[in-house]
Amino acid sequence: MLSRVAENLFWMSRYFERADNLARLVTVHQTDLLDATSAMAEDSYDWHPLLAVTSMGDENSTESVQDYMVRSQENPDSITNCIYQARENGRAVRDQISDEMWIELNALWLDLKAILKNGPGQHEKICQMVNRSSLVFRGIVNVAQPRAEAWAFIQLGEYLERADKTSRVIDLPNYLRGRDEASAWSTMLRACSAAAEHRRHYSGEADSTSASTLLLFSTSFPRSVRFCVQKIDDLLHQISGTDSSGYLNEAERASGSLLARMNFSGVEEISSLGLHDYVDSVQFNLNEIGAAIGFRYFALTKESPSSSAEEFFKIRMRSIQKQQ
């Protein structure tokens, strides 16, 4: 497969997953966290936790924070811009995806364009549309896409982005100063569709231990970080044809290293580092994996990537800037 085709498939899937996860965060934050206070929804302080945990900045924007996150053209990571980027990447590889996948992706963008013409607002409607369309799109991928290289790169983008966003959800209560911790964790579980799974495994209300354990280390829940990293590792070995017990390139080494870390020392590391610092370090490792994937499969070079963390981030930033 051509590197540009693999890259388009990867980023089509990753941008769609990013939009879906951001829509989930915006929805639960607005309905559960803001409504629980006496402050108005337009108060930028109430939305600061979402801006901080998603690494968005709106210092130079004149838009409301909700508009900035959901529908802004200035914000490259707004929900609508993510759908636009997913659609553009999908359009470039229409011959590699099913007709139904393209129809769903294109129809969502056209519907969003119609909403954007109506002016500010309608955040809830946009988020609902994106969430529903994402479920449909993922269902189509599962039933209509052959299990070949194209499917593997689509899945790779999905699971890498999902792991990153789940880790950010776990870190969000760290920014919710003065809020009831149990209520905050319950909200975060709903953002990941994990409330029912939590009830099946734990009694009582959600707290930092039970919720973070589920969202970080579950081997069966599809949105847990560990589950996603396992899928990433499997997909990378499927693409290269390498036995799962070894690694052929830096991407496989990085994914295998993070998976082993989460399998064998996750709980102990949280005890020593604290949840916030542990999640930060996991996000760092996910950035390494993303940079190594880009260098191995998308960059037109045969040179091996540097093992230094600084070089990984330089590669990562160049890849992001190219997509934007």
Give the amount of beta strand, in percent. Answer: under 5%
Tally of discrete structural domains: 1
Count of runs of 4 or more consecutive helical residues: 14
Average pLDDT, all residues = 86
- Structure class: mainly alpha
Low-confidence stretches: 38-45, 301-313
Overall shape: globular
User: Helix share of residues?
Assistant: over 70%
**Which sheet architecture does the biggest sheet show?**
none
Radius of gyration computed on alpha carbons: 19 Å
**From the structure provided, what is the oligomeric state, counting identical versus distinct chains?**
single chain
- Give the N-to-C terminal Cα separation: 23 Å
Q: What's the SSE pattern?
A: HHHHHHHHHHHHHH
How many beta-strand segments?
0
Describe the structure.
- The chain is an all-alpha fold.
- The protein has one domain (3-323).
- The chain contains 14 helices and no strands.
- The protein has helices at residues 3-34, 44-53, 65-70, 79-92, 99-116, 123-144, 149-171, 181-191, 195-201, 208-217, 225-240, 250-273, 275-298, 309-323.
- Helix 1 packs antiparallel against helix 4 (79-92) and helix 4 packs antiparallel against helix 5 (99-116).
- The protein is globular.
- The two termini are 23 Å apart.
- The model is unreliable at 38-45 and 301-313 (pLDDT under 50).
